[in-house]
Task: structure prediction
Amino acid sequence: MRPEQPSAVKLSEYRVPDFLIDHVEMDVVLDGPATRVSARMSLRRNLQGRPDAPLILDGDDLRLSGPLEIDGRALPLSDYSVAAQSLVIPAPPEGPFELHLVTALDPAANTKLMGLYRSSGTYCTQCEAEGFRRITYFLDRPDVLATYRVRIEADRAEAPILLSNGNPESAGSIEGTDRHFAVWHDPFPKPSYLFALVGGDLAQLKDSFRTMSGRDVELGIYVEHGKQDRAGYAMDALKRSMRWDEEKFGREYDLDVFNIVAVSDFNMGAMENKGLNVFNDKYVLASSDTATDADYSGIEAVIAHEYFHNWTGNRITCRDWFQLCLKEGLTVFRDQEFTADMRSRPVERISDVRGLRAVQFMEDAGPFAHPVRPESYREINNFYTATVYEKGAEVIRMLKTLIGAESFRKGMDLYFERHDGQAATIEQFIACFSEASGRNLDQFRLWYSQAGTPTVRAKTSWDEAGGTFTLELEQAVPPTPGQDTKKPMVIPLAYRLFGENGTPLSVENSSGDGELIVLSDAHSRIDWKGLPKRPVLSLNRGFSAAINLQTDLPEADRLFLARHDDDAFNRWQVLQTATTEVLIKSVHALRSTEPMPDDAPQIEAFAAALAHTALDPALLAQLLTLPSEADLAREIGRDVDPDAIYNARLRLKQSLLAALEDDLRARYEATSVPAPYVPDAAGAGRRALRTVLLDLLTARRDERSAHIAYAQFVSADNQTDRIGALAVLSQIESRLREDALDAFASRFAGDGLVLDKWFALQASIPEAGTLERVQRLMQHPDFSLSNPNRVRSLIGGFASGNPTQFTRPDGQGFAFLADNVVQLDRMNPQVAARLLGAFRTWRALEPVRRAEAEKALRKIAESGSLSADVNDLVSRALT
Ligand code: PHE
Ligand code: ZN
Result:
């Protein structure tokens, strides 16, 4: 039995709007449950639309207050119909007209955190994708672009800070009252999803930025009082982002002010509203005592991401939500490039690819697989996915690799010039690059329309007599929901051939593209001729194509590449591949009577990496990190037993420890140089290495191991080392673990953002008692089901960060998630739906767990009155 389906929106059914809105005058009176929004919209018929179409405005849960007016005259009740979800005027005036309407809102009762709501008392908004219709009736679609003037009025004591998009125009007191107002004007036409408004009592961090043409922009970051000293890093990241976009893309900021507001209740990471970004405070607040290196780099990336949206998303927006990757994939690509420039490029690439494989490849291999540009959706909120974002970014990177950096920059310039001020499509975007490069990109566009991760099989052969090295390539894209058969894709494979002592060979290949092979047929054969000796091939360097690559490299070539490849990514990849193979063999051995594989080659490779003292510690940390449980599950693909995967990893760590203990300890001790904490790449690399080494040093999981981790925990003078130690210690059943957890909780009591780490660590403990622990933690005074960050840390941490316990064979882990999804759905459907991501690979589980997962999914499906968000995902999961 499947829940009823809301009807699908289809890309093929796109129609231009029948009406346009050029300008909006808003007057927002913030007054608790008596909040009112007056909107005066300048409307006109779209000459490209249907001539006699009625005016249909979108609404969601709205209540009209007072009469509707057209051009200053009240509209008779018989001339329109109004419901919670729409407002219809069958016969509006033919010429341009002004529509005035007032809606009544109760922001504190808005638990969906979409539209106008309150977070710790602050009034704030979230409109992407369809939240503006929860504020007023509107043509709430991204191809309707209007300028806005917004007057906000509020009690001065309750909300001394009043912000909206654009530039400030005026402000003042309201005579004879305790109230005040501010007026903001945004001269750039924008879609309603970029609207924002904030009213509250907030502390402000101020700075300024001089743009490339010499204009001064006032920068403001608003946070809860007492937290200003945690906003400095975000401000620094903002200024670096603004400079970088000028230098790398020629993009200058365009308003007089740029404001960021941090709120503690937010469904996503952050939002790029024009001139007024609203952030989940997780991506703003950081101090050495509260935030980890990962938090700092997350802040840097998200600040950059939202800022970069000003050009890729705001100045040029999306025609419709099918084009979401037009802004998101491109902007993720831009923020990844920024991070690569700010930190270490290879380390950034490795961690991006790790993330891509762990989340997007998983998504692409299961029931939620969809193209980077989907063709239909039932609930757009469910398409803010790793596929749209991260695979979307990979597609841009492949495009750049394919046409070259110079043509890519030309194409970007053309895109900015041609589509500034417009709501664009993927076709228009791609057209800029085919013009700039002179290359036909029709087949390349399959990356946007075909779901699934392509597999490329590579076979090499050597003809000693003729001195010819041959590479045979074969590609296939697996079937995905709704797409049974696939066409061959354009796959750009960066490569290099190495000669005997590790020197790169410069020989033309038969396809003649320099050190790039562009695979565009199902099969292909490339020859290199006139070679004195069989070369060693390094393929898909830097992960130039987002594919699953299967090679037949002999062991000797792998060892060679691990030592000599001048692409750090591929040096890391060879070791990962080899380790993955050994771990998968161990998994099979653990589940059968087969003997355990020989891990001597792994030990040797790890020893070599450890001995390489000139290596960047951040890179060494990546080299020494085993493939994750999720990675292995994906590689195994079917009949997955998470316990066996967990045990295989632990056993390998134990053999590494047995063989390399002295080296590991020596290296570990060398990382603890007493230096003041600086959240830069070098320090972060050293600390990442320290925790990876600590994890290996404690692989026996005995009392002595617990002491080693505990020692780092108590002596840590920064949150990275402290949480690193606590994460390791959490995996060890010990009294010390509970002591450390208690100490952490009392030290950070009341600080939800810091306790999120504490919740997540405990949720990930691979022990049978964890489910009960999680249930107990839900009663903790700092936990709240209404705060998305808390829910994601504790419940999401359990479902997505604890493979062995979430998938318990007795089904209790699944059942726990199902109950919480149903309960949360009544409050906040988006957050509830996100949790269901944990089911993205349920069919790959072994039969007992799979049956339990299905039971839980069916239970959700049958629980009645589900939101469109949860309904859509559950029914897709079960299809
Ligand atoms: N557009 C935001 C971003 O990626 C994400 C977001 C989507 C935020 C929907 C809120 C709601 O930058
Ligand atoms: Zn974005």
